[in-house]
Amino acid sequence: MFADERMDRIVDIIVNSFFPMLKAGVAFTVPLTLVSFLLGLLLALFTALARISGIKLLDAVARFYVWVIRGTPLLVQLFILFYGLPSIGITISPLPAAIIGFTISVGAYNSEIIRAAILSISKGQWEAAYSIGMSYPQALKRIILPQATRVSVPPLANSFISLVKDTSLAATITVTEMFRVAQQITATTYEPLVLYCLAGFIYLIFSTVLSNAQGKMEKRFDRYVTG
Amino acid sequence: MIEIKNLHKQFGQTEVLKGIDLKIEEGNTVCIIGPSGSGKTTLLRCLNLLETPTKGTIQLGKFSLDFQDKIPVPKDKVIKFRQQTGMVFQGYNLFPHMTALENVMEGLVYVRKQDKELSRIKALQLLEKVGLSERANHYPFQLSGGQQQRVGIARAMAMEPEVLLFDEPTSALDPELVGEVLKVMKELAKEGMTMVVVTHEMNFAREAADKVVFIDKGVIVEEGTPQQIFEHTGHERTLQFLNKLCS
């Protein structure tokens, strides 16, 4: 009898929590991921270009940025942004703080992916672009980046899926994304195992959908290599 | 039309070109021959500034550039100078993410900023000229080496350069594909295109060149008509080189 009652209660909790959590996922986790990733991609592109620019100062600044961000935990970076900065008078709301934190982090990691992708394009492609009269920016935009993009899709997708999961860290700076909602429901129901498994399950759904999107994108970019 | 004076190129401690003087007349085809490592490709790449000479002057069409050690040529000057040249590469270097047609159109549309439709028409004419109008919408990986190289020639021609530079254009090709590329080049030579060709194809040099230049160890050993070089050379090193090719 006891087991049956417990089972019913768990089913109730799952049914009642699934949609609020999914909603938090759609309302916070997904936008947080998308916005941070896109901004991070832009930051990564400029960082990569600074690294290969051959201008010593730019290269040094970019190296320093990547070194610091890759060498410190994301959780620590978020805490500095949200809990640390107010003590010197800079107060950032939870969601912007999360976006800034994730953008800076993803920018550092992706800059290395983009740099490697650009360097993987043969020197002959640059030379061919120059030989038809292109300038450096033209060659980069028309010839090199389109090819580098194709090379960088798989590693960038990796980084994107990592970010989907890392957004759960935003819970620690009070952003009510999906994991925070799971914590809140746990606090009132005392069923951590059920709710955290449910949260994991929803993250799994998100990353599966995104992996499939990656496959489609790779196929699209492969058209000029395999037809 | 092209005048090279006292051209030097140094890579680190190695001096690859040790004072080259060469004149190329408009409409001429000049073949540069010589053993590997002699500096012939470097000389060609200096003509469109893919390599910056260490010393010397190059006068090409409207522009004359004077090179001095460690003084860089301004970027816009480099681009303007280079736009007078077209280059065909040993490894084709077609843009793999574009069709044959797009490869030829690219410079017209994005460098010359010409109308897309007009560029397409011109690119199609050029592809027809190299015998590839039926492959216009193929990507490079769908083309044979010989076809890719002919697209490469059309792409270089599209920019209407004063001079076409060929860097061993048939060296990467299967033997049975060499002919189709040389045929296109011979036609261009006949039409009066100014061409500088680094090549190992002595038959092509013999038939199509107005002038043959033999380079060894960074200096021009000898230059002259194909007959002078291939049949009446008085230079030991030229003879040695030619004999090696025939053996």
Molecular structure report:
The complex is a heterodimer of chains A (about 230) and B (about 250). With about 230 residues, chain A is mainly α. Chain A has a single domain, classed as MetI-like (MetI-like fold, Orthogonal Bundle), CATH 1.10.3720.10. Chain A has nine helices and no strands. Chain A has helices spanning about 1-50, 55-70, 75-85, 95-120, 125-130, 135-165, 180-190, 190-220, 225. The longest helix of chain A has about 50 residues, at about 1-50. Chain A is flat. The model of chain A has no long low-confidence stretch (mean pLDDT about 90). In chain B, strand 4 (about 55-60) and strand 5 (about 65) form a beta hairpin. In chain B, helix 3 crosses helix 4, helix 3 (about 100-110) runs parallel beside helix 5 and helix 4 (about 115-130) crosses helix 5. Chain B is about 40% helix and about 25% strand. Chain B has about 250 residues and is α/β, with parallel strands linked by helices. In chain B, the strands form two sheets. In chain B, strands 6-7-8-3-9-10 form a six-stranded mixed β-sheet, sandwiched between helices. A four-stranded antiparallel β-sheet of chain B has the order 2-1-4-5, with helices on one face. Chain B has helices spanning about 40-45, 75-80, 100-110, 115-130, 145-160, 175-190, 200-210, 225-230, 235-245, and strands spanning about 1-10, 15-25, 30-35, 55-60, 65, 85-90, 165, 195-200, 210-215, 220-225. The longest helix of chain B has 16 residues, at about 175-190.
